[in-house]
Fold this sequence. Notes:
alpha/beta; 5-stranded mixed β-sheet
Amino acid sequence: MILSIESSCDDSSIAVTNTETLELVYHKKISQELQHSVYGGVVPELAARLHIEALPKILEECVQYFPKLKAIAVTTAPGLSVTLMEGVTMAKALSISLDLPLISVNHLKGHIYSLFIEKEEVLPMTILLVSGGHTQIIEANSLNDMKLIASTMDDSFGESFDKVSKMLGLGYPGGPVVQEYALKGNENRFELPVPLRQSPNIEFSYSGLKNAVRLTIEKCVNEDGIVSDQDKYDICASFQKTAIAHIMQKTKKLFKQKAPVNFSIVGGASANTYLRSQIEDLCKKNGTTLYLSQLKYCSDNAAMIGRVAVEQYKQKEFTKLDDIDVKSRLKGF
Length: 333
């Protein structure tokens, strides 16, 4: 078995995965959403302190598996450096005390392998990764043959939802609450600009759309300095429609060049049902097989890190204790 640790942002998670059967023997995640919601986003130093409390509590439940462990896996990049370090520190301690090799896991590969938790991998595949930190299209041919073919120029898809939610005073994380508000709104009420509509390039940008939403909110503030609930519903619906129209426009360009045989959406923001339905329609029209993670594995978790680690273990991809380090701003693989 492999014990895996995830602490790249604000979720403390540990999993134990069987290397032969791929069974997820143990998995637990403690979210910090409540603590960060009062600030409207993740506070790195607070997140690190909360990891210090949560990770040891989860680890206590894994002691029974220690005799069967073959390796310790941990997320090392990308993410918040102060939170990544908490996971790496625990992984090093376990490696030394249990005399086990270390496996350094790329968080982005983790999201890709969230598709294959307790399943055999299906590659090659074209992947749309949408999360709070990333908006990317990736060509994944194998574990160590992954190519970034499109990325965001500024804000990510998930981050834009968080910022719109914060501007409307709806709390954190923004994805679920904006989606919920959008269900009650008129998506055609506010005409927002679709980013890079005229650009022939396959790339993403959300800073302009975010600013357009800010200006729309300002116009909706009444004499008492309040935005009505209906205005909030309509703003969320109009924003969500436009944010996803941008992704779909660029993804359709990719499909027009060459429709992938296999396609998937991964990452925390891939839980958005509006986006999922649009992608499903696109894949059906092009005869492309669509793969989706279970909703519980879309956000950051140690189960996906453990699934990548199984493949790295098979290929003996271990990292020496002195060489393991965190990289907060890693875009590639």
